[in-house]
């Protein structure tokens, strides 16, 4: 039971880490601008970097507030409708993050109360090591064929085909091509890797079972 609860705690903390990393990277204006320059988006779209910055600001604002007025001056109805689906995923992720935080606290409390704080932390660290191995395999599969992974993600999480855009006419896919998202996934993965390594280091805590130093 202790191992199961430790695994539940580690899974919840991993989801929280993923949620925070995703929201941080998706709201990073410097990342958007850097990608616009690297992917030569001003040439592709025929828009200046200043215009693209304004549109990017609207996208990030929409992901936080869900107000379609931030998008309608720039995108077609089908593009906005797709972003409605994307916002729904972000909103669900935020709600699940709250549930994960509560569940993590509960699943950690009982074994920590019985075996001691340090032993509880060590158990979470050991469970995280197992998760790192699983996520490392997942990362390798994604990196090996990101296009396929990205396609699979969309077919799993979107019930319509609005995400299938035309790069010849749809501004959203012109601004946000596949390399943009691949870079975003790599940044999220890097943040998660650092966080998971910190959690895994708990497995090597020294000291007595109830001692916290």
Please outline what is shown here.
The protein has helices at 2-26, 29-38, 41-45, 49-65, 77-115, 117-144, 146-157, 171-175, 178-200. With 213 residues, the protein is mostly helical. The two termini are 27 Å apart.
Mind explaining what this structure looks like?
The protein is mostly helical and 213 residues long. The chain has helices spanning 2-26, 29-38, 41-45, 49-65, 77-115, 117-144, 146-157, 171-175, 178-200.
Q: Which value, in Å, is the CA radius of gyration?
A: 20 Å
Compute the average pLDDT: 92
Care to count the β-strands?
A: 0
Low-confidence stretches: none
Name the helicity range. over 70%
Content of β-strand:
under 5%
**Count of helix runs:** 9
Strand and helix order: HHHHHHHHH
* Cα end-to-end separation: 27 Å
Main sheet attributes: strand count, strand direction, barrel closure = none
What is the global morphology?
Answer: elongated
Helical/strand content category: mainly alpha
Question: Which key terms come to mind for this protein?
Answer:
213 residues, mainly alpha, 9 helices, elongated
Helix-strand blueprint:
Layout: H1 2-26, H2 29-38, H3 41-45, H4 49-65, H5 77-115, H6 117-144, H7 146-157, H8 171-175, H9 178-200
